[in-house]
């Protein structure tokens, strides 16, 4: 058991409300062996817990990351690629190129659309979009799609497509913007 009784002790001494208690429980001597974590933020009263293999929680509410991020991303990409083919498009994975979207999808006339894929575990509350992705969406408003895919265990749900998802550029110096996932999903459509 590792305990940091006052993380931010100088803040606590000065009555600055940014300090917490942190506890980690491990079955061995390395960080890899940690199976439970707890943090209580005295400034906000929030309690963060995480148990290996069971997910992370804020005040008892799941934060959503129950599966490895990579697995969720793969399932989301597969769901979008499959959907694009079913709609008659020829999709191509360009995610490794970091060009502001993950999929280039061409219709029978050769016209391209650009799809940024965001896979999230069911019940996730937020989605983070990079500045590059937002600027790409603003620069290609008629051909850019934000695809939101909820993943439940080993299965991806039907992708929701949000057209023209962004209305303004991020603040100068911002590297990403976090959105409420349910609000974006409510603006999406299945085709």
Give the C-alpha Rg.
20 Å
What is the CA-CA span between the terminal residues? 51 Å
Give me the number of helical elements.
4
Mean pLDDT: 87
- Tell how many strands the DSSP assignment holds: 14
Major pleated sheet = 6 strands, antiparallel
What's the helical proportion of residues? 10-25%
The chain-level structural class is alpha+beta
Strand content: 35-45%
Strand order of the largest sheet: 1-2-3-4-5-6
Shape field: elongated
Give the helices and strands as they follow along the chain: EHEEEEEHEEEEHEEEEH
Q: Overview of this structure, please?
A:
It is built from 4 helices and 14 strands. It is of the alpha+beta class and 191 residues long. A hairpin with a 2-residue loop joins strand 11 and strand 12. The mean pLDDT is 87.
How do the helices and strands line up, and which of them pair or pack?
Blueprint: E1 2-7, H1 9-13, E2 20-26, E3 34-41, E4 47-51, E5 55-58, E6 61-62, H2 69-86, E7 90-93, E8 103-106, E9 112-121, E10 126-130, H3 131-139, E11 144-152, E12 155-156, E13 160-163, E14 176-180, H4 181-187
Parallel strand pairs: 9-11
Antiparallel strand pairs: 1-2, 2-3, 3-4, 4-5, 5-6, 7-8, 8-9, 10-14, 11-12, 11-13
């Amino acid at each position: 058991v590792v305990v940091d009784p006052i993380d931010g002790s100088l803040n606590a001494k000065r009555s600055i409300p940014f300090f917490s208690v942190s506890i980690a429980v491990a079955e061995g001597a390395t960080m890899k062996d940690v199976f439970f974590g707890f943090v209580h933020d005295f400034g906000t009263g929030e309690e963060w817990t995480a148990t290996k293999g069971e997910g992370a929680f804020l005040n008892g509410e799941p934060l959503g990351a129950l599966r490895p991020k990579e697995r969720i991303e793969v399932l989301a990409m597969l769901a979008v690629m499959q959907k694009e083919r079913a709609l008659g498009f020829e999709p191509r994975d360009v995610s490794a190129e970091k060009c502001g979207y993950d999929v280039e999808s061409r219709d029978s006339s050769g016209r391209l659309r650009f799809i940024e894929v965001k896979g999230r575990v069911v019940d996730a509350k937020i989605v983070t979009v990079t500045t590059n992705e937002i600027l790409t969406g603003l620069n290609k408003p008629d051909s850019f799609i934000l695809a939101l895919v909820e993943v439940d265990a080993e299965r991806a749900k039907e992708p929701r497509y949000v057209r023209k998802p962004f209305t303004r550029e991020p603040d100068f110096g911002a590297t990403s913007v976090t959105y409420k996932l349910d609000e974006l999903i409510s603006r999406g459509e299945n085709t």
